[in-house]
Amino acid sequence: MDWGTELWDQFEVLERHTQWGLDLLDRYVKFVKERTEVEQAYAKQLRSLVKKYMPKRPAKDDPESKFSQQQSFVQILQEVNDFAGQRELVAENLSVRVCLELAKYSQEMKQERKMHFQEGRRAQQQLESGFKQLENSKRKFERDCREAEKAAQTAERLDQDINATKADVEKAKQQAHLRSHMAEESKNEYAAQLQRFNRDQSHFYFSQMPQIFDKLQDMDERRATHLGAGYGLLSETELEVVPIIAKCLEGMKVAADAVNAKNDSQVLIELHKSGFARPGDVEFEDFSQPMNRVPSDSSLGTPSDGRPELRGTSRSRAKRWPFGKKNKTVVTEDFSHLPPEQQRKRLQQQLEERNRELQKEMDQREALKKMKDVYEKTPQMGDPASLEPRITETLNNIERLKLEVQKYEAWLAEAESRVLSNRGDTLGRHTRPPDPPASAPPDSSSNSNNGSQENKESSEEPPSEEGQDAPIYTEFDEEFEEEPASPIGHCVAIYHFEGSSEGTISMAEGEDLSLMEEDKGDGWTRVRRKQGGEGYVPTSYLRVMLN
């Protein structure tokens, strides 16, 4: 069934229907355009949300990035960002494949519809013009017939009138004959016009207009088909991104499953383990017997002038409880501002990084040397002299990195010794140098040496602010009076050692020292400086020569 046959007389209906179809197409284009704007706004808001909650610091500088829950959250944010990208892709595809294509197609349909209806109106106008000509010829024929009949009646009346002259009668007959002839011509013209109009009308209703209506039907069906395809693109565009969105959702699920509470607890230990030993018990100080009390962890002992001095107040000021408020520390190159365990880890990281850089520079140097050899053997490939600046720069970098590696190795060795010296006995190892033998008799010179050593250490203590910020070490507070011991050998310091913890002594690189006591397996050796003062230093820092 087609419009040309079934709707031959519904020109206005078809005009309204085709206009409605084009309006529907335009409405759908507008709908998709607004849908695109919604998708773009949604994607923009998602990206803004991700940017708001994404960590600002790089992962290598952010300790929180080591926790699985933080890593999972960052992964979820990345998946949401990818999801936003898919929404942007949906908006882009809808804009290009639906809005632009259908808008262009709508314009083409409007032009085609306009052409068909203009053709139909021209056919209508031609038919109406033929009908007007038919009406005119019909009225002329009717008028001529009346005139001919009237002329015939006049001629007949004059012919019967005895008073009429012959001339009047002849004139009336001629007039009647003329009118009759004109009526006959009008009749023939009317018949011809009628035949022509009937032919045109038949062509109009059975051929011309059905063809136009069929073209309109074809146009409208093509428009409807195209619109249906546009409807399908709405879902197809969504289906195209469903696999990637599913991967985003799966990534979020994987991120959720990746949260490891136990591992995060271990990470917290690795990040913040100080390596300090727990403080020992505070001994009772009997102030009722100030002259006879035994020196304890919280007393400084008797000065060299023999006057008893109560300790504890000055020492307690140098201590800081681990739960107190921490002051701001100054970052140093050797990370000495960090607790021993954290210092060791950071130095280890720096050393590994320098070694990687050193290996990279050495590989580059070898590559440049090979390239230089190739240039020397084949000059057309390049000038060997052009590589000299790069080779020189690489050699300078290698020397610089070697010095840095040595520096970090020395710092790392010192940090490792400090970690060992501060470990608790529960680990099955000595955490500090062994205490001096308690059986040694008191001696003024030894006491003087210990006093001078303590005075020196007191003078080298950091300011009160840093002292309050210093962690609690396992301290060597007990004092013993010993007879002067004879050195069992001598040794030379290979590295510089600060001796910042209690019981240790500082030494400079290359300094000659007297060996007072050998390493008992804990990694520490007791030495005496020429300037006076005894203490423990790492055995690995010494070159020992026994007597």
Give structural notes.
By secondary structure, this protein is mostly helical. The chain has 3 domains: about 5-260, Substrate Binding Domain Of Dnak, Chain:A, Domain 2, CATH 1.20.1270; about 340-420; about 490-545, SH3 type barrels (Roll), CATH 2.30.30.40. It is built from 10 helices and 5 strands; from the N terminus they run H-H-H-H-H-H-H-H-H-H-E-E-E-E-E. A 5-stranded antiparallel sheet has the order 4-3-2-1-5. A hairpin with a 6-residue loop joins strand 2 (about 510-515) and strand 3. The longest helix is centred in the N-terminal third of the chain and has 93 residues, at about 70-160. The protein is rod-shaped and about 195 Å long. The chain starts with a helix and ends with a strand. Residues about 290-320 and about 425-480 have low confidence and may be disordered.
